């Protein structure tokens, strides 16, 4: 699921790979650089949810992110339902994402 990781250095588009009450794993479209390192504070934005936290692991396949405060279980369940809806409608989702990219939407 498309997401955004926002740090003091800027915003980075990423893909949410895994989500739990205490953190998330995200994949980047590139190798993480020195601006996205362990201990860096950030905000993870995905499908209307914003969670503050810290990058706790950084590797070639992405980042592990620990939330400052655990998410509500309702938020995690809502995110799972949202991901399932996206999986059922890939063409519509792809068109929307392409339109957002072209128009600068988020």
Report on the architecture of this protein.
It is a single chain. The chain has helices spanning 73-88, 90-103; strands spanning 2-7, 10-19, 23-28, 41-46, 49-59, 62-67. With 106 residues, it is an alpha+beta fold. The protein has a six-stranded antiparallel β-barrel. The longest helix has 16 residues, at 73-88. The radius of gyration is 14 Å and the shape is globular. The relative contact order is 0.19. The mean pLDDT is 83.
Compact overview of the structure:
The protein is an alpha+beta fold and 106 residues long. The chain contains 2 helices and 6 strands.
Could you list some keywords that capture this structure?
106 residues, alpha+beta, 6-stranded antiparallel beta barrel, 2 helices, 6 strands, 42% strand, globular
Strand count, sense and closure of the main sheet? 6 strands, antiparallel, barrel
> Could you tell me the number of beta strands?
6
What is the alpha-carbon Rg in Å?
14 Å
Helices and strands, in order, run as EEEEEEHH
Report the average pLDDT across residues.
Answer: 83
Strand ordering within the main sheet: 1-2-3-6-5-4
Structural class label: alpha+beta
- Could you say which overall geometry the principal axes of the C-alpha atoms support? globular
Could you tell me the strand content as a percent range? 35-45%
- Terminal CA distance: 13 Å
Number of helices: 2
Model regions low in confidence, pLDDT < 50 over at least 5 residues? none
The helix fraction, in percent, is 25-40%
């Amino acid at each position: 699921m498309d997401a955004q990781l926002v740090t003091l250095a800027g915003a980075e588009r990423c893909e949410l790979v895994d989500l739990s009450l205490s953190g998330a794993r995200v994949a980047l479209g590139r190798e993480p650089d020195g601006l996205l390192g362990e201990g860096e504070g950030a905000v993870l934005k995905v499908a209307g949810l914003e969670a503050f936290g810290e990058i706790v692991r950084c590797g070639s396949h992405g980042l592990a992110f620990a939330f400052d405060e655990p998410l509500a279980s309702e938020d995690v369940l809502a995110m799972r339902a949202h991901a399932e809806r996206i999986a059922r409608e890939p063409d519509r989702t792809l068109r929307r994402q392409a339109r957002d990219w072209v128009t600068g939407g988020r």
